[in-house]
Amino acid sequence: MSARQKPTTMAFVAWSGTGKTTLVENLVRLAAEQGLCVGALKHDAHRFEIDKPGKDSHRFTTAGADSTMIVAADKLALVHLHKTAPPVDELITRHFGHCDLVLVEGWKTSDLPRIEVHRHELGRPLLCRDETYDPNLVAVASDGSVDVDVPVLDLNNPASVLDFIQRGAWRS
User: Fold this and answer.
1) pLDDT at residue 45, as a whole number
2) I need a labelling partner for 162 at 20 to 30 A (CA). Which of 10, 22, 44, 61 fits?
């Protein structure tokens, strides 16, 4: 894939405890096994900390560095301080342009196409249809039947979910 093409991107939204992370993890694994370059992007509504107090990178950040990067032979991590979170599209363009596929967990108010994860046993309403009408909803991945105006995918069959994303029928 050329760096100028935008990667196929799909967001996953759901109530907490529904299985978003497990589904995204399985999709990442399946796509990587197919040889795709896969990016995963997670929105955290809470504060998180990857820098550990006492470590060099944390010392640089607490000393006042706006951006601190730690690099090893096989990976890098960047801590970039900001007053407000950048828009998800900007993050995808800046950090995931080299990917074939970007799977996003969260960002339910973005303009990204999204699949809602629904687990029947929880008895929760759909975020994207019952709670509010979300025009960016392209499918529901559920472990049961759901009466909805978009395709219902089998939550327990991640390969079929990945196939749906790759076919891209939701784009038209």
Assistant:
1) 61
2) 44
Tens-place pLDDT, residues 103-114? 999 888 889 999
Distance CA 101, CA 123 (A): 31
The token pair that represents 56 in the structure block: 């060099």
Q: CB of 13 within 8 A of CB of 116?
A: yes
Tell me the DSSP string of 114-157: EEEEE-GGGTPPPIIIIIS--TTEEEEEESS----SS-EEETT-
Query: How far apart, in whole angstroms, are the C-alpha atoms of residue 34 and residue 87?
Result: 29
Set out the domains of the chain in order of their start, with CATH numbers.
8-43+85-171 (3.40.50.300), 53-83 (no CATH)
Rounded to 5 degrees, what angle do the CA atoms 38, 41, 43 make? 165
Residue with tokens 């504060």: 47
The confidence score (pLDDT) of residue 150 equals 96
Tell whether the model's pLDDT for residue 126 goes beyond 90: yes
Angular region, 119: left φ>0, alpha ψ -120 to 50, beta rest: beta
Which are the contacts of 24, defined by CB distance < 8 A and separation ≥ 6? 12, 40, 103, 105
